[in-house]
C-alpha cells in the first residue's frame, strides 16, 4: 500500500509543501526511512527533523519552514498522522464464518459476514452483527446483542443479556456483565443481592484488556457512545459514563457513580460510589475522588514522592497536623497579645 | 413466578399492611410497575414513594405510615428485598452433564448433576461436586476439589491442587492458585522460589471478575467461609482472610498478611505484607495500611482531592513539612522567651 | 525423590555440620517433619528451631551453633533453600504434542517436544520452541514467536507478532500485546491511533496472573532479560523495563516510561508516562512517581493510615497547608520584628 502526499491531502485535507513523494508507512523520527511519514506535534521535537531519514512530515503552519522535507501542513498533525496510520494499516480480518472448533448455540443469530474464531462460544438467542469479529476463546452469554463492525480480541467474556453497539473494540480478558458487588448483612452472614440489571454499551466504544464492567443491580450500567477505557479498569454496578469520556489504565469507579461527558480520568484514579462528576472534568492520575465534582476543570490529589529519608521526616507530621495548626493558632494569639502589650 | 405479600410474609417474616397484592418482580422506585415490589431502607428515599408506580413496598416500622401502598414492615428492608429478589430470580441453570465440546480428563470425578460448559476443561483426578456449574472455557487443574452448588462463570482458572468449598461463586477471569511472587537474588539474577502450597477456599464465598489468588509458598493461602471479594482484587501467597470479611474492588493484599473476620476493606485499599488486621476492622477506600491494626474500628489514609491550583499551592508544603514544624517550634521557643522576658 | 545433605552440598555448595541425613521435602518450621529441610534466614526466627520437628536446617555461619540439628551453612540460606525446593519439586510436565482438542493453524511451527494443551489455539505462522508448554485455553496470535522451555498457564493471550524469549513463565489471564491506549481528539470524538509496534520479552522473565502488557504505538514495548512481574500489573505502550527489575502486584506503568535495571517497585506503585527511572531504584508500595528519578535509592510517597477521627482532624489541614505556611511566615516576620524592637 502506498500513497502520494497529494492523495493524502485529497482524503484528509491539509496543504502540501515540497515534492509530492510516495509514503508507504508511518514511523517515529528515529526509525523512519525514506518512504515513511513522521509528524511534529510539539515544537520541542522540531530539532529531531534535522536527523530523521523520513521521506515526509506532517506539521503545523507555524513550523512549516523548519525543514525542507516534503511536508503536509495541518492544524492537528497528531490526528492527521493517526488517520494516515489507519489508512496504511487496516487490521487483518479473519474470513467470515464460524470456525469449526467454535460452539454456537442453534438459537443464536450470527450474521453471515461475521467471524467467530477458534474455540469461541456463543449462547442461546445471542445476536452477532455484520462484519463483527469474535476471536478465539470469546464467551458470549445467552441473549447478548452485539452490533456490527465490532472486534473482540481473544478470551473476552460477555454475560447474558448485555447489549453492545456498533464499532466496539474489546480487548482480551475484559469481562462485561459480571455481577455487581451487593451483599446484605443478615446479622450473622452476607446474603447476596441478585444483580438483575444489565450492561448497555453504545457505539464506537473501546474497552481495554482485563477491564471489568459489572451489570446493574436493578437498572443498567451504561457506557455512552465514544467512551474509551484503557486496561484493568473496574466499572461497578449502575455506573453511568457519559459520551466520549476517556479513562487511563487501572481506574476504579465504584457503584452508582455518574461520570459526565468528555471527562478524562488519569491512571489509577479512584471514584467513590454515588459520586457525580460534571462534564469536562479532568481527574489526574492516582487521585481519589471522594465527593462530587460539579464544575469542569482539573482536579488532583497526589501525594508527592520523596527520598525515603525526606519522606520519613515529613510524613510523620501528617499524623499530627491538627496539633501543628493548633500550636500555630495559639502562637498567633500570644504574639497578637504581645503586639497589643507594646 | 408471582407471590402474594402474605406468601412472602410466611416465608421471610415481617408484617403485612394494606392489600394482599401479588408481586412478580422487584424494581427500583423509578422503574417499578404495579406488580413490582420496592423498598425504602433510608428515610431520605421516603419522598420517592409519592411518585412510584410500584405495587408494594418493604419498609421499617418507623416509616409504615408514610404511604398507603400495600406494604411489608421489616427491621431490615434491604435484606428483605434481597430475599424476595432471590426468590423471584433463580439463576438460569444449564442442564447437567458434560458439554460435548468440553474436555474432562478420564480420571476426573464429575457428579452426574454437575454441568460442565462448552469448551471447558477439567484436569486429572479433579473432583466436581453435585449441582456445580462450570461455564464455558473454565480451566480446572489436576487434583482440584470443588464442592457442591458452586457456580463458576466463563473462563475461570483454578490451578492444580486447590480446594474450594460448597456454594462458591467465581466470576469470569478470576485466577485461583497462580504462583506467589517469590524470588531470591543470586547476586546476578533472580531465582524463582517454587510455590509449593495451595489455596483453600471455604463455603459460601464469592470471588469477583479478574480477581487473582496466589497459592502459598509453603503453607496455603486461605479464604474462610463467607468471604466476599469484588473484582480485580489481588490476594498474595499465604494470606489468610477471616470469615465474612468483604473487600471492594481493586484491593491488594500482600504476602502473608492476616486479615481478621468481619472486616471491610474499601476499594483500592492496599495491605502491606505480613501485616495483621484484627476482626471488625473497616479500612476505607484508597487507604494504604503499612502496619498492623490491632483494634476494631474505622481506619483511613486518603489524600483529599482539590482543584489543580489549590493542590499545587498546598502539596508543595508536604515536602518540607518537617521544616515547617521546626520553624514553629523555634517560634514557640522565641515567643516563650519573650514572655519570660516581660 | 530424596537427597542426603552431602549430595546437596555437592550440588549447591555450603558446609555440612552434623549427621548426613536424608531430606525428601522442604517445609516451614511449624509444619516440617523429620525428613524435611527448613531454613533460618533471619536471626529473629532462630528460636523457632527449638520447637521444629524438621530433619535438617540451612543457616548462616553466624548461627551455626544455635542448634544441634543436621545443618548446612550457607551465606544465603533463603537462596539455598529455594534451590533445594526447586530440585525436589520439578513442575509436572504434560506429555509433548498437540492435544486433540487444541487448534493449531497449519502454518504454525510447533517443536515436537512442545506441549499444546486442551482447547488452546495457535495462530498462523506462529513458532513454539522446544519443551515449551502452553496449557489449556492459551491463545497465541498470528506470527508470535515463543522460545524454548517456556511455561504458559491456562488462558494466557498473546496478540499477533509478539516475541518471547526462552524460559519465560506466564500466568493465567495475562495479556501480552493488546493495543496501547492512544486516541486523538477530532474536535467532536476520539480517533483511535493504530498501535503498530509489538512486545518483545527477553529470557528468564516471569509474568503474573492477569498482568497486561500493551504493544507499542510505533516502536516496541520491551521487557529485558530476567524481569519479574507479579499479578495485575499494567505495562503501557512503549514502556521499557530494564534487566532484572521486579515489580510487585498491581503496579501501573504509563506509556513510554523507561524503568532501569535492577529496580524494585512495591505493590500498587504507579509510574507516570514518559518518566525515566535510573537503575537500582526502589519505589515503595502505594507510591505515585510523577517525575523522573535519576539516582539509585529508595523513594516513597505513602499517605499514613490513621483512625477515622484522627484522620478527619488532620487531613482537613492538607487543603489549606499553604495558608498555614503563610501564617507561619507572617508570625516569623512579626516575632522577628519584636526581637529587633527590643
Notes on the protein architecture:
- The structure is a homotrimer of 342-residue chains.
- Chain A has 342 residues and is α/β, with parallel strands linked by helices.
- The first copy, chain A, folds into three domains: 3-88, 3-Layer(aba) Sandwich (Udp-n-acetylmuramoylalanyl-d-glutamate--2,6- Diaminopimelate Ligase, Chain: A, domain 1); 97-299, UDP N-Acetylglucosamine Acyltransferase, domain 1 (3 Solenoid), CATH 2.160.10.10; 309-341.
- Chain A is 14% helix and 28% strand.
- Chain A has four helices and 40 strands.
- Chain A has an eleven-stranded parallel β-sheet with strand order 8-11-14-17-20-25-28-31-34-37-39, with no helix packed on it.
- Chain A is flat and about 75 Å long.
- Chain A starts with a strand and ends with a helix.
- The model of chain A has no long low-confidence stretch (mean pLDDT 95).
- Chains A and B meet through β22, β23, β38, β39 and α3 of A and α2, β40, α3 and α4 of B.
Keyphrases for this structure?
homotrimer; 342 residues; alpha/beta; Udp-n-acetylmuramoylalanyl-d-glutamate--2,6- Diaminopimelate Ligase, Chain: A, domain 1; UDP N-Acetylglucosamine Acyltransferase, domain 1; 4 helices
Major pleated sheet of chain A: 11 strands, parallel
Radius of gyration based on Cα positions of chain A: 27 Å
Shape of chain A: flat
Specify the CATH architecture of the largest domain in chain A: 3 Solenoid
Content of β-strand of chain A? 25-35%
Instruction: Report the CATH superfamily of the largest domain in chain A.
Output: Hexapeptide repeat proteins
Uncertain spans of chain A:
none
From the 3D structure, determine the CATH topology of the largest domain in chain A.
Answer: UDP N-Acetylglucosamine Acyltransferase, domain 1
Counting copies of identical and different chains, the oligomeric state is homotrimer
- Which two chains form the greatest contact, residue counts included? A-B, 75 and 72 residues
| SS summary, helix count of chain A | 4
Amino acid at each position: 500500500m502506498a500513497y502520494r502526499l497529494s492523495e493524502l491531502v485529497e482524503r484528509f485535507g491539509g496543504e502540501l509543501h515540497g515534492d509530492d513523494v510516495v509514503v508507504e508507512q508511518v514511523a517515529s523520527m528515529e526509525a523512519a526511512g525514506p518512504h515513511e511519514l513522521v509528524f511534529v506535534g510539539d515544537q520541542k521535537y522540531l530539532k529531531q527533523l534535522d536527523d530523521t531519514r523520513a521521506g515526509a512530515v506532517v506539521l503545523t503552519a507555524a513550523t512549516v519552514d523548519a525543514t525542507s522535507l516534503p511536508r503536509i501542513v495541518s492544524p492537528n498533525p497528531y490526528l492527521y498522522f493517526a488517520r494516515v496510520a489507519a489508512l496504511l494499516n487496516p487490521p487483518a480480518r479473519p474470513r467470515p464464518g464460524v470456525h469449526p472448533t467454535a460452539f454456537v448455540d442453534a438459537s443464536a443469530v450470527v450474521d453471515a459476514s461475521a467471524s467467530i474464531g477458534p474455540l469461541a462460544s456463543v449462547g442461546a438467542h445471542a445476536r452477532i452483527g455484520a462484519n463483527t469479529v469474535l476471536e478465539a476463546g470469546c464467551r458470549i452469554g445467552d441473549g447478548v446483542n452485539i452490533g456490527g463492525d465490532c472486534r473482540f480480541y481473544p478470551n473476552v467474556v460477555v454475560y447474558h443479556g448485555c447489549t453492545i453497539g456498533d464499532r466496539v473494540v474489546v480487548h482480551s480478558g475484559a469481562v462485561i456483565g459480571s455481577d455487581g458487588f451487593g451483599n446484605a448483612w443478615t446479622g450473622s452472614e452476607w446474603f447476596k443481592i441478585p444483580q438483575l440489571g444489565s450492561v448497555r454499551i453504545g457505539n464506537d466504544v473501546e474497552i481495554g484488556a482485563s477491564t471489568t464492567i459489572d451489570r446493574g443491580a436493578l437498572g443498567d450500567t451504561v457506557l455512552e457512545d465514544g467512551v474509551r477505557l484503557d486496561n484493568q479498569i473496574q466499572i461497578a454496578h449502575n455506573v453511568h459514563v457519559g459520551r466520549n469520556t476517556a479513562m487511563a489504565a487501572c481506574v476504579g469507579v465504584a457503584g452508582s457513580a455518574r461520570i459526565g461527558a468528555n471527562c478524562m480520568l488519569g491512571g489509577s484514579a479512584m471514584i467513590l460510589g454515588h459520586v457525580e462528576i460534571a462534564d469536562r472534568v479532568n481527574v489526574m492520575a492516582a487521585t481519589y475522588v471522594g465527593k462530587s465534582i460539579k464544575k469542569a476543570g482539573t482536579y488532583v490529589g497526589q501525594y508527592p514522592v520523596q527520598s525515603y529519608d525526606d519522606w520519613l521526616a515529613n510524613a510523620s507530621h501528617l499524623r499530627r497536623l491538627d496539633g501543628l495548626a493548633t500550636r500555630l493558632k495559639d502562637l498567633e494569639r500570644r504574639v497578637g497579645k504581645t503586639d497589643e502589650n507594646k
